[in-house]
């Protein structure tokens, strides 16, 4: 994931910072407890495609 892209992308729900989860290849919003997939290097920032994080994943 390009670090320059991480500086400008934001959560589409709360407009907050997204963190890159390399292990799962996702962008994570800890505030909304959502994980957005990255397909072929392109973040899919659609709430409908996001995965809800479990309480164990949000730390």
What characteristic shape results from the CA principal axes? globular
Category from helices, strands and their pairing: mainly beta
The counted number of beta strands is 5
Low-confidence stretches: none
Number of helices: 1
What fraction strand?
Answer: 25-35%
CATH architecture classification name: Single Sheet
User: Secondary-structure element sequence?
Assistant: HEEEEE
Mean pLDDT: 92
Assign a percent range to the helix content: 10-25%
CATH class: Mainly Beta
Q: What is Rg?
A: 10 Å
Question: How far apart, in Å, are the first and last alpha carbons?
Answer: 22 Å
Q: How many structural domains?
A: 1
CATH T-level topology = N-terminal domain of TfIIb
Pfam family, one: Trm112p
Organism: Photobacterium aquimaris
Family: Belongs to the UPF0434 family.
Protein name: UPF0434 protein C0W81_01885
